Amino acid sequence: MSDINLEIGTAPELAFIDKKLIRVDASYQRPLKERRVKQILRDFSWKQFGTLMLVDQGDGTFTVYDGQHRHAAACRHPGVAEVPAAIVTLDQAFEEAQSFLGVNINRSAISTVEKYWAGIEAGDEKMMRICSVLEEAGCEVVPPGTKSPGPRRTSSISAIERAIDRYGDQAVTDACRTIVTAWPKDNVALAGVIIQALARLYKNNLSIVDQDRMATKLHGKDRKILSADASALQRIGGGDAAVSLAKVLVEIYNKGLQSNQIQIGARS
Q1: 39-88 tens-digit pLDDT
Q2: ∠ CA 205-125-10 to the nearest 5 degrees?
Q3: How far apart are the first and last CA of the chain?
């Protein structure tokens, strides 16, 4: 029985709830996908609708932590006034976000950005660590519902998490700070591959690397061309993209230096 959770909590209340009393908490929920809502409306059927998972807010209203697209469709359907729901009571907002993660964590539909913001609301240690690292560099994760990342914003959650695990918080912070200094107006500069490549170089050359020099050297380069050069190197020598890009960055940084040249070093 050790692999079965016996702390299942209080059973939810089953009820039909006025659709107008239900809202979505945007602090952790994923952005609404209009195409999905329209699809549900086209095929709307109680046999397929199922039940919404709601949190009783204690004031006669409810928030939905599983089923927001079905709720949105129900709100637009002229023949629907109430929806079937399983209602739970939670103590704090972060528990609601944790419930959202628990329901959606194994579904492919949830993106890493959605997982990040739900994790922040839920107080997830790994997501809070990523947030701290980015804030130190003056950067942030793309806010929920934002289509374009924008300068100093990133959606590369998984890559940042890996880089932190391998190279540490400070190396990733320094990498992000260098990137936004080098390309301050580039909307997608904070890509996972370059964050990992720079973090590796900073961790492995801690005592000699000059971050200002790196930023200056990169500022004069076209980021897309750098990526293309790294891809060409990867095709020739194999390995992963971050390693290939790190090799390109080492060559750029060391050009003209007689001493204190940096090396790619070990992966971790």
Answers
A1: 889 889 998 898 998 888 888 999 887 888 899 999 999 999 999 999 98
A2: 165
A3: 38
- Structural domains for the chain: 13-92 (3.90.1530.10), 146-254 (no CATH)
Instruction: Determine if the pTM surpasses 0.70.
Output: no
Instruction: Report the Cα 28 to chain-centroid distance in Å.
Output: 11
Tokens (6 digits) for 263: 């090396």
Q: Which residues contact 258 (CB under 8 A, 6 or more apart)?
A: none
3-state secondary structure of 107: coil
Give the pLDDT confidence of 167-224 residue by residue, as tens digits.
999 999 999 999 999 999 999 899 999 999 999 999 999 999 999 999 999 998 888 8
Listed residue (122, 136, 131, 146) closest to 30, CA to CA: 146
Encoding tokens for residue 126? 């790994």
Phi, psi of 14 (to 5 degrees): -100, 130
Helix axes 211-219, 192-204, angle to 10 degrees: 150
Tell me which residue of 209, 213, 202, 150 sits closest to 173, measured CA to CA.
Answer: 202
Q: Which stretches of the chain are DSSP H helices?
A: 34-42, 46-49, 68-76, 93-104, 112-122, 125-136, 157-167, 169-182, 192-204, 211-219, 223-237, 241-254
Task: Enter the tokens of residue 213.
Answer: 């020099």
For every residue of 222-264, DSSP letters joined together read -HHHHHHHHHHHHHHH-S-HHHHHHHHHHHHHHTT-SS-----
Measure CA 70 to chain center: 24
